[in-house]
Specification:
Helix content is 94%, strand content 0%. It is mainly α and 216 residues long. The mean pLDDT is 82.
C-alpha cells in the first residue's frame, strides 16, 4: 500500500468529519482511522524492510556468483593446460617405453650371444690351442683366439652402450612421468566440481528470494 493511498483514505475520513457528523462518531472515525493508519504504516515499513533485506541478499549472492565465475574461469584454463601437458607426456612416455623395449630386447639378445655363443666359442678355441702340437697349428689357433676376443670386445662395447642408453631412457621416463600432473589435474577438477555446486546453491537461493519478494 502506497503513501498516496493512505493520504487519500485520510482525506476521505476528514471529509466525513466536515460533513457534519457528531463529535462522538467523528472521534470514533478518527480513532479508527488512526489505528488503521498506524497498522498500515507498520505493514509498509515491514514490507519495505523485508524487500530491501532480500534484495541485499540477492545482490550478495550475485556478487558471490561473479567471484565464483572468475575463479572457475581461471581453474578452467589451468585444467586445459594440465590436460594438454598430460597428453603430451603420455605420448613421450609411449615413445620412451617403446625405445626401452627395443633396447632391452637387443641387450638380452647380445648378452645371450656373448655368454652362450662367443664365450663358449672362445673356450673351445682355447682348448684346441692347449692340445695343439705343432707350431703352425698353434699359430693358426692363436689367431682364432685374437679374432674371437676382438669380436667379444666389440660385443661388450655395444653392451655397455646399450646399458647406458637404457639408463638414459629410464631417467627420461622418470622426468616425463605424468603422475604429478595427473594429481594436480584431479585436484583442479575436484575444486571445479565444488565451485559448480556452490554456484547451484547461490542460484537456488536467488530464485527462492525472488519468489518470496514476488509473493508479498
Amino acid at each position: 500500500i502506497s503513501d498516496e493511498e493512505i493520504t487519500k483514505l485520510r482525506n476521505e475520513l476528514r471529509g466525513i468529519k466536515t460533513a457534519g457528523r457528531s463529535k462522538t462518531s467523528d472521534r470514533k472515525i478518527e480513532d479508527a482511522y488512526n489505528y488503521t493508519y498506524d497498522i498500515l504504516r507498520v505493514a509498509i515499513v515491514h514490507a519495505n524492510n523485508y524487500r530491501t533485506g532480500r534484495e541485499e541478499l540477492i545482490a550478495q549472492h550475485l556478487r558471490d556468483l561473479k567471484s565464483l565465475n572468475f575463479e572457475l574461469n581461471g581453474l578452467g584454463k589451468r585444467r586445459r593446460f594440465l590436460l594438454q601437458k598430460v597428453s603430451e607426456l603420455d605420448i613421450k612416455m609411449d615413445e620412451i617405453k617403446a625405445g626401452l623395449k627395443t633396447l632391452q630386447a637387443e641387450l638380452a639378445k647380445l648378452n645371450e650371444s656373448i655368454s652362450k655363443g662367443m664365450n663358449k666359442e672362445r673356450d673351445s678355441i682355447y682348448k684346441k690351442f692347449q692340445t695343439a702340437t705343432t707350431l703352425e697349428e698353434k699359430t693358426r689357433i692363436k689367431q682364432e683366439l685374437v679374432d674371437i676376443n676382438a669380436k667379444i670386445h666389440v660385443a661388450v662395447d655395444r653392451l655397455m652402450k646399450l646399458r647406458g642408453s637404457i639408463s638414459g631412457l629410464i631417467r627420461k621416463r622418470e622426468e616425463n612421468d605424468s603422475e604429478k600432473d595427473r594429481r594436480q589435474l584431479y585436484l583442479v577438477e575436484k575444486e571445479i566440481g565444488n565451485l559448480e555446486y556452490e554456484k547451484e546453491q547461490h542460484a537456488l537461493a536467488i530464485q527462492k528470494l525472488r519468489e518470496e519478494i514476488g509473493g508479498r
